[in-house]
């Protein structure tokens, strides 16, 4: 069905129940661990009603942007996550399948065009913008899960022939973050100002957890990720 990594007892990250949950929410699944989905700004841009902040600040056209992830799994169980319980949790890649990065890029683009862009033809969209949308020029790895968990992330980014691309991470994988090649925009989610607030909502009565991280050293990992981002010398937005 799709390229498999060599190794013993490898398993697919997207189980049948996870597949059903994500598909119900509109995710277009790719391979054994990835997905694409339509951002609401795509249709807005196709109708020339405006784009997202990336267009306002950086000139990136929303109708030429593909929102994706290379890993639907995440090491946090954030209370504010709108995906609910539809995606898996994992500390590391471990025994998951790892699809070929070049194949993954092509499959993402193909599914983005077939399932997201082409069905919008005739939906009161601008003809010129629609033609442009058939040639994506930006990849936003910010969809669901933790994209930097994917062990072939560097190869994946290098296989994208038309940067810019942005990467959003929760800062729980500092080594993988440090090894990332240059990206146009790098975001690290910081959901509270200190370790206790990051784990609890701050109200002593409620004691609601915020990120609900799986890692016990979640705060140290976040600080290490911030340090790794600061030490990157490439010209990129952070």
Automatic annotation (TrEMBL):
<keyword id="KW-0411">Iron-sulfur</keyword>
<keyword id="KW-0408">Iron</keyword>
<feature type="domain" description="Radical SAM core">
    <location>
        <begin position="58"/>
        <end position="238"/>
    </location>
</feature>
<keyword id="KW-0479">Metal-binding</keyword>
<dbReference type="InterPro" id="IPR034556">
    <property type="entry name" value="tRNA_wybutosine-synthase"/>
</dbReference>
<keyword id="KW-0949">S-adenosyl-L-methionine</keyword>
<dbReference type="InterPro" id="IPR013785">
    <property type="entry name" value="Aldolase_TIM"/>
</dbReference>
<protein>
    <submittedName>
        <fullName>S-adenosyl-L-methionine-dependent tRNA 4-demethylwyosine synthase</fullName>
    </submittedName>
</protein>
<dbReference type="GO" id="GO:0031591">
    <property type="term" value="P:wybutosine biosynthetic process"/>
</dbReference>
<dbReference type="GO" id="GO:0046872">
    <property type="term" value="F:metal ion binding"/>
</dbReference>
<dbReference type="Pfam" id="PF04055">
    <property type="entry name" value="Radical_SAM"/>
</dbReference>
<dbReference type="GO" id="GO:0051539">
    <property type="term" value="F:4 iron, 4 sulfur cluster binding"/>
</dbReference>
<dbReference type="InterPro" id="IPR058240">
    <property type="entry name" value="rSAM_sf"/>
</dbReference>
<dbReference type="InterPro" id="IPR007197">
    <property type="entry name" value="rSAM"/>
</dbReference>
<dbReference type="GO" id="GO:0003824">
    <property type="term" value="F:catalytic activity"/>
</dbReference>
């Amino acid at each position: 069905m799709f390229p498999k990594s060599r190794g013993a007892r490898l398993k697919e990250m997207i189980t049948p129940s996870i597949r059903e949950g994500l598909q119900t929410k509109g995710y277009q699944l790719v391979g054994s661990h990835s997905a694409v989905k339509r951002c609401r700004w795509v249709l807005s841009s196709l109708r020339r009603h405006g784009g997202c902040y990336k267009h306002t600040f950086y000139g990136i056209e929303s109708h030429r942007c593909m929102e994706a992830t290379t890993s639907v799994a995440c090491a946090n169980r954030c209370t504010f996550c709108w995906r609910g319980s539809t995606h898996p949790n994992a500390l590391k890649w471990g025994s998951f399948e790892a699809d070929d990065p070049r194949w993954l890029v092509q499959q993402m683009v193909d599914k983005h065009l077939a399932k997201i862009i082409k069905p919008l033809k005739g939906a009161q969209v601008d003809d010129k913008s629609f033609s442009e949308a058939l040639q994506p020029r930006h990849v936003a790895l910010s969809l669901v899960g933790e994209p930097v968990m994917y062990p072939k992330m560097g190869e994946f980014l290098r296989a994208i022939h038309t940067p810019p691309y942005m990467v959003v991470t929760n800062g729980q994988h500092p080594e993988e973050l440090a090894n990332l090649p240059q990206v146009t925009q790098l975001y690290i989610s910081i959901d509270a100002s200190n370790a206790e607030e990051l784990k609890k909502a701050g109200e002593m009565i409620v004691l609601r957890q915020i990120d609900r991280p799986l890692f016990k050293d979640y705060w140290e990992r976040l600080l290490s990720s911030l340090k790794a981002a600061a030490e990157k010398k490439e010209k990129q937005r952070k």
